[in-house]
Amino acid sequence: MQSNRLGWILLAPTLVILFFFGVVPFFYVLWLSFHQWNPFALDPAVVYNGADNFRALVFDNGFLASLGVTIAFVFFAVLTELIVGYLLAQAFMKEFPGKAVFRTIHTLPLIMAPIIVGSIWKLMTTPSIGIIPSLLASWFGFDLNIGTSAVAAFTVTVIMDVWHWTPLVTLTLIAALVSLPADPFEQAQIDGANKRQIFWHITLPMIAPALLATVFIRLMDALRTVDEVLMLTGGGPGSATRYLGVHIFKEVFPKTNYGYGSAVSIIVLYLTIVACWLLYVALIAPRNKKA
Amino acid sequence: MTRTEPQDVETPINLYEEQEEGRQSPFDRKARDGFLPIQTNWFDRVFISVIIWVALSLFWLRFMEPAGLPLTISNVVAVLVGVYIVWKG
């Protein structure tokens, strides 16, 4: 009983912070999503409008388009990060000259603020002054212009996200790979298993929890990407890179449509929770049940 | 003479497991198998009901309400489905 009380006392500061910075804002946004509110209008009153914001949302072509490009962005970015991150983690498990320097350099994007990452990539991809269009033009005769080509803009935002966040995946997977016991691998080698069999039947199942945690983190982050993309493309050309975060930003700040922005935010949160839950149910829950 | 099953014997290991079980949250202890494909506790089932309620409401707003069916029907259906999931899921 005493240890219970001590546990609650130790948890109390976290719970209080979580309540004021997590629970209260959530319920405030939820409450706001059922209201119309423009604080800068002539009449800044908060007016209850039932489900009108959600009613508008399901017919909003801008929102539906941004939902589509966000799903594509999340899929390509997170999948690429996982593959590249795993390959890099495997590379870092081996000894090679300059490993420490390379590992430090490879981690640098992770410590950069997203707005800086967006600025750097903006400078690198601007057609007249950027190094990437210049090199692509001189090497392959390819004209990269993220201001006019929707595919190019989308691809560059994915590459930028991969560049920024792959180190996180690499670091978590290195931690998972280092903690693996050597015995199963030695036994598999003795039994004559090849590298592919060892990967599918030993490495992957053993690092699955770490992999899944990384996917959750990246999925949640990618679904709320705003600043990098806003800095690089501003959501354009057209709505090619107007991801949900950018869509919410443009609804809430330039249009000061707080109620509708709150409704979109709630739906993004809903989609994030559902995506993570489905992943958990598909990958972890059956294993627990079997155990 | 009947053979005693190993799990019937109160060994220190079994006692330890019981203590561990006692430390589990009430949510974990009441996990069960229902018609849902995964083992769930009551919180999981409420969560699944809310997820279905939101999805059904959005579907209704987009496709059914323009045909003249009010959102109230969707809410009633969602509550009934929710109760069934919490009860039998």
UniProtKB/TrEMBL annotation, chain A:
Transmembrane segments: 7-31, 63-88, 100-121, 151-178, 198-217, 261-285
Chief place where the protein resides: membrane
Keywords, ordered alphabetically: Membrane, Transmembrane, Transmembrane helix, Transport
Signal sequence extent: none
One GO CC term, this protein: plasma membrane
InterPro entries: MetI-like (IPR000515), MetI-like_sf (IPR035906), Sugar_ABC_transporter (IPR052730)
Membrane topology: Multi-pass membrane protein
Pfam family, one: BPD_transp_1
This protein's record includes keyword Transmembrane helix: yes
ABC transmembrane type-1 domain segment(s): 63-279
Localization per Swiss-Prot or TrEMBL: Cell membrane
PROSITE patterns: ABC_TM1
Gene Ontology biological-process annotations: transmembrane transport
Family statement: Belongs to the binding-protein-dependent transport system permease family.
Classification via PANTHER family: GLUCOSE IMPORT SYSTEM PERMEASE PROTEIN GLCT, TREHALOSE TRANSPORT SYSTEM PERMEASE PROTEIN SUGA
Identification of the protein by name: Sugar ABC transporter permease
Protein's organism: Jiella avicenniae
